[in-house]
Design goal:
Elements (H helix, E strand, L loop, with lengths): L14 E3 L2 E3 L12 E2 L7 E4 L10 E4 L3 E4 L3 H4 L5 H25 L3 E3 L6 E15 L10 E4 L4 E8 L5 E7 L1 H5 L2 E5 L1 E2 L3 H33 L1
Parallel strand pairs: 5-7, 5-8, 6-8
Antiparallel strand pairs: 1-2, 3-4, 4-11, 8-9, 8-10, 9-12, 10-11, 12-13
């Protein structure tokens, strides 16, 4: 999910060639003012300039959206609408459970309403795919939800103002984590848990890092 977020400052660079100064182009940015930051953990990360997550102690998690690959239904017409609803619900529930567990482990309470110290998280799980599994019971349908191309798109907002703080997208963890089995009810496999827990861990580390930086700054000012 989300690697530790830091205050963004873009250093000016110049190249002098035969008395000509050539300045670099501006950093990539989004229409809502976020600036791209290089990340070794997620594929794409944009943050608000000057961002600090230090004041956030609680987290509000929006309903998690789950989307399949565009052509999955044409390839698997045997999968019913009820099965799809079950799969989406199972994946979203597992995602929320892992985020809750990881954040509460760091001391961040999960809440249901906005507040001054509440960070709002919106997440979409995209590019799930369905493959048909095997079962000892011929009458029982078993589906494997492939995470080979699983991606996470997430946004962080201030829960009161709605101000956009960060946007991240990542596919790497899904490529590394195998399949999520679902048959009747979600089977919470270690592979799926690992992918979701990793993304949740990135957010917890970002919050921890922001708090530590704020405390260090206050300690230095007091000396």
């Amino acid at each position: 999910m989300i690697r530790p977020l830091i205050v963004v400052s873009v250093a000016s660079l110049s190249l002098v060639l035969t008395a000509c100064v050539i300045a670099p182009g501006p950093a990539a940015s989004t229409p809502d003012g976020l600036v791209q930051v290089k990340s070794s953990r997620v594929d794409s990360l944009y943050v608000a300039p000057g961002l600090s997550l230090a004041r956030y102690r609680r987290v509000l998690i929006d309903s998690v959206d789950v989307a399949f690959k565009q052509d999955w239904q044409a390839r698997h017409p045997e999968v019913s609408a009820d099965d799809v609803a079950m799969i989406r619900h199972g994946a979203a529930s597992l995602f929320r459970a892992e985020f809750t567990r990881e954040l509460e482990k760091g001391g961040y309470a999960i809440v249901e309403s906005p507040g001054a110290d509440v960070l709002r998280v919106a997440a979409s799980i995209v590019d799930l795919d369905i493959v048909t599994g095997t079962s000892a019971d011929p009458a029982a349908q078993q589906y494997m939800v492939s995470t080979a191309d699983l991606s996470l798109v997430s946004e962080l907002r201030d829960s009161q103002s709605g101000a956009m703080l960060a946007r991240a997208a990542d596919r790497k963890r899904g490529r590394n984590q195998g399949n999520l089995q679902l048959s009747g009810q979600a089977a919470q496999t270690d592979e799926a848990r690992a992918a979701f827990a990793t993304w949740a861990g990135y957010l917890r580390e970002a919050l921890d890092g922001a708090r530590a930086a704020e405390e260090a700054k206050a300690k230095s000012a007091a000396q």
